[in-house]
Specification:
Blueprint (H helix, E strand, L loop, with lengths): L1 H25 L4 H10 L4 H10 L3 H9 L8 H4 L7 H12 L14 H20 L5 H15 L2 H17 L4 H17 L16 H8 L10
Helix pairs in contact: 1-2, 6-7, 8-9, 8-10, 9-10
């Protein structure tokens, strides 16, 4: 009975993922499709493998066990920080792009996978600021390639794959630029220290340059937001 229920659940998840992939191919700007894919991948072997690999890093394992979750940042307060600080850079980025720091789809933390999913959603834009990847299509995929190297999360691999396929079919002339971003992101992610272990929200006052030095990140000038 348990095997049958698991099979039925995986089959339902696959249908959700497949539908979301088709929709994302048609409209790559719709974040709901991204979240549908991520939620559908929750019980996959790849998700479990990623978590197991991340937990081999003691600092990440400690964060997972702690279930560290930060409150939504106060953008107006962060704008009062020094202009060189991470807090000011992040708040300016949010304000400039018209974003809501709590925009991401909520997720109930029930296990290690759901915790990591929530933490990644919560810090996605902080990663943009620290790495310097823009929020356009190329920048998002560059950051996903960075994430591939840092976390091995299945969503990152899926989105990079969808982007490659979509670009190949719709605008093949852009493939060199896309491949450059993927290469840059993966290389940066491979050499940088783990961003997932950082409690950014407790050190908004630290200069952005110090964060980048600490994490061995050197964003390319053409890449910075």
């Amino acid at each position: 009975m348990l095997l049958l229920e698991r099979h039925q659940r995986l089959s339902a998840d696959f249908k959700v993922i497949l539908k979301a992939l088709v929709n994302l191919y048609r409209d790559p700007t719709n974040l709901d499709y991204v979240y549908d894919i991520e939620d559908g991948l929750h019980d996959s072997k790849a998700a479990k493998s990623s978590v197991n690999w991340l937990k081999t890093q003691s600092a990440i394992e400690q964060l997972i066990q702690e279930r560290y979750i930060a409150p939504h940042p106060d953008i107006e307060k962060l704008l009062q920080y020094p202009e060189t600080s991470l807090g000011y850079a992040y708040a300016s980025y949010i304000q400039k792009n018209g974003f809501d720091p709590g925009f991401y789809r909520p997720i109930k933390v029930e296990d290690d996978i759901s915790y990591l999913t929530l933490r990644m959603r919560q810090t996605h834009d902080i990663w943009h600021v620290v790495t310097g990847f823009k929020t356009d299509g190329l920048g998002e995929i560059g950051l996903k390639a960075f994430e591939m190297a840092q976390t091995r999360r299945n969503l990152a691999f899926v989105l990079v794959g969808v982007s490659l396929l979509g670009t190949l079919v719709k605008s093949p002339d852009q493939l060199p630029n896309l491949l450059e971003q993927i290469t840059l992101g993966y290389k940066m992610g491979s050499t940088a220290k783990p961003l997932l272990t950082q409690k950014w929200e407790e050190h908004w006052d630290k200069p952005l340059s110090e964060w980048r030095d600490k994490l061995d990140i050197q964003p390319a000038s053409f890449n910075s937001f």
